[in-house]
Amino acid sequence: MGETRRRFEPEFRAGAVRIVRETGKPIAQVAKDLGINAGTLANWVQMDRLAREQDTNGGELAESEREELARLRRQRTEWAKERAELEMERDDAPMLVKPQRTEYAQVRALL
Description:
Structural class: mainly alpha
Shape: elongated
Strand content: under 5%
Number of strands: 0
């Protein structure tokens, strides 16, 4: 039968992440020292890193990011207009008719 899953207290998790962050030791080494799986500690460190990024940005975009977003939206609008125009031109253009099979046979006969 499978092992029961170990549960770690939030304080333990925070302490382990703090050790990695403050000492600069590799995650694998800290995990070995604490007797936990390196993948587990790596997940905790990644979650902490993402949470810190969210806190520093406050969930809002920087000025340069807002400018780039506005530029990309304008460009998307322009491309949508161009695409619509091209579709209209395509629909208005005469359809090219493929030659009949008999013409292929006549060409082969000539060769």
